[in-house]
């Protein structure tokens, strides 16, 4: 057999049937369901009198528009309440396993899946949310789907898919102080652009990636979609197996050992061909952030905002100017020192315990700058409880941060946590599109440590000055 | 799903690249539990002022483009969130064909699944079609899926590529699920084989 990549191996092992035009019926191992993209799918099933084929391969959780303040109070926004209640009705009617709002296991679906051992190496994992790519960190093929596909998976446990092209992004070397997985991924997106990965599944490899913990790998895979890729993945290794061991829904005991024996085969063959290879040196990556309204507008924190006049393509020049105007920045301005109004530490990109520790290390002994609203929204109830056991909540609260309940929160502003027009936010989330965090809001994407640095200084800051 | 055969419609030119799904339908409008009714919020940020009044310059606020059935843009249309609300919003507005030099993967797929035809054409051709579109009611375009051509107002025909399976599903207005369920036997066989070879694969059960 021809040499195969990791993606090829996972793909091949899930093909149920190949149709005439090359489309495959691909078997799906895990279907993650949340309140925003599922109601119309359940409605579709109901209309056509269909059932869920594999409720035991499905998990539902509420995350996108749950309030992150006191959960014992009724949900104020009627439409949010309606979506949450609709999901609860649907999971009962269709017999879907569910982590309810008041469960400690509730959280952002992409934090909950790996944390519970639901997302495992070698699996195909889908969810009606583009950041499903996060689960690729487990060594799984994980990607976002639309609501029609959600319904398709519910009814058939499969998807109609064409194979993707293979891309490998190799990062070698040792990261400098203050440089995190988020900086690595932003640097990658800055290099290949938001369409650089279109049509590809990206495998992340190299000593820098191998050296990351699972949270860091999840941050990287999470933002594969911002690089245009269908999915991102990292070959499973000892770090992965140790992470999975003992998780509630993972195989246990003898079954775990059998699983590991299989998972160890999940590496690309030595001479496997990639359609595209991109290489970066860890030493070349400083702490970075975005200045504009596209995730590829990445600059070093020591850098300056680009000048549209330097752009020769007229359409691109106009777009840069529009971004500058929207972001309220001047061409050539130094990015460090730009004052922020809000700091958001959270989202499926950066709300795991490791992220909170890294932010807390900067915050400890300091105070949120006057006039800045800073909040931490843990990725799940489990992360929150763990942080509280470690005393991180005290670090944040004593410094003047808000300490919230788990959910997507200000990542997309579907719940009451949103920016007001013109507000500038240092955010650990993954998208900085116009209005993403609230109409007129201005988002700078950066790492949890950099977000913490912005909170305590009141402006975009090179975190290395604080360590 | 409605069949897509031949569409003759006013085309709206929107010469921008990277129009993401947040722009097509901002997240705060995703709270519906139905597929319909999102058309009034399509392109909300570009279309309305903060106070809810219309921005008179935005193409879809101008005649005759309020009745546009085709949208033409620059590269990477539909990037960002995978929300299917984006095609629903377009469809509810009345747009059932989008033309661009390139599309984001998920959005491209989602269009087909909702009866919208996405057509990839080179940038120069998109620009030429935008010039046609600027003629307004005199610049109607015809999209003939069976023959795989876009017909310009002067009668010139521009051919486009489309996956044969997708073409058939659109022409027949067929949904994928029914198609796949014809292979239910193969799915059961696959499941049985996996249960034999990978008995450790856990099931999700919550008591
Ligand atoms: S945290 Fe943000 S990006 Fe992640 S699933 Fe929620 S809304 Fe999507």
UniProtKB/TrEMBL annotation, chain A:
Pathway where this protein functions: Amino-acid biosynthesis; L-leucine biosynthesis; L-leucine from 3-methyl-2-oxobutanoate: step 2/4
Cofactor details (free text): Binds 1 [4Fe-4S] cluster per subunit.
Binding site for [4Fe-4S] cluster: 348, 408, 411
PROSITE patterns for this protein: ACONITASE_1, ACONITASE_2
Superkingdom classification of source: Bacteria
Transmembrane segments: none
GO MF entry, a single one: 3-isopropylmalate dehydratase activity
Domain Aconitase/3-isopropylmalate dehydratase large subunit alpha/beta/alpha: 8-458
Cofactor(s) for this UniProt protein: [4Fe-4S] cluster
Broad EC category: lyase
Gene Ontology biological-process entries: L-leucine biosynthetic process
Stored Pfam families: Aconitase
Keywords, alphabetical: 4Fe-4S, Amino-acid biosynthesis, Branched-chain amino acid biosynthesis, Iron, Iron-sulfur, Leucine biosynthesis, Lyase, Metal-binding
Reactions that this protein is recorded to catalyse: (2R,3S)-3-isopropylmalate = (2S)-2-isopropylmalate
The keyword Lyase is assigned to this record: yes
EC number: 4.2.1.33
Matches recorded under HAMAP family: LeuC_type1 (MF_01026)
PANTHER family documented for this protein: 3-ISOPROPYLMALATE DEHYDRATASE, HOMOACONITASE, MITOCHONDRIAL-RELATED
Family named by the database record: Belongs to the aconitase/IPM isomerase family. LeuC type 1 subfamily.
Function: Catalyzes the isomerization between 2-isopropylmalate and 3-isopropylmalate, via the formation of 2-isopropylmaleate.
Description of how the protein assembles with itself and partners: Heterodimer of LeuC and LeuD.
Name this polypeptide is given: 3-isopropylmalate dehydratase large subunit
Organism: Gluconacetobacter tumulicola
TrEMBL record, chain B:
Subunit structure: Heterodimer of LeuC and LeuD.
UniProt KW keywords: Amino-acid biosynthesis, Branched-chain amino acid biosynthesis, Leucine biosynthesis, Lyase
Alphabetized InterPro entries for the sequence: 3-IsopropMal_deHydase_ssu, Aconitase/3IPM_dehydase_swvl, AconitaseA/IPMdHydase_ssu_swvl, IPMI_Swivel, LeuD
The reaction(s) this protein catalyses: (2R,3S)-3-isopropylmalate = (2S)-2-isopropylmalate
Name assigned to this protein: 3-isopropylmalate dehydratase small subunit
Residues covered by the Aconitase A/isopropylmalate dehydratase small subunit swivel domain: 1-123
GO biological process, one term: L-leucine biosynthetic process
Pathway membership: Amino-acid biosynthesis; L-leucine biosynthesis; L-leucine from 3-methyl-2-oxobutanoate: step 2/4
Molecular function via GO: 3-isopropylmalate dehydratase activity
Family under the similarity heading: Belongs to the LeuD family. LeuD type 1 subfamily.
UniProt xrefs under Gene3D superfamilies: Aconitase, domain 4
PANTHER family: 3-ISOPROPYLMALATE DEHYDRATASE SMALL SUBUNIT (PTHR43345:SF5), 3-ISOPROPYLMALATE DEHYDRATASE SMALL SUBUNIT 2-RELATED-RELATED (PTHR43345)
EC number: 4.2.1.33
Uppermost EC category: lyase
Lineage: Bacteria, Pseudomonadati, Pseudomonadota, Alphaproteobacteria, Acetobacterales
SUPFAM superfamilies in the record: LeuD/IlvD-like (SSF52016)
Described function: Catalyzes the isomerization between 2-isopropylmalate and 3-isopropylmalate, via the formation of 2-isopropylmaleate.
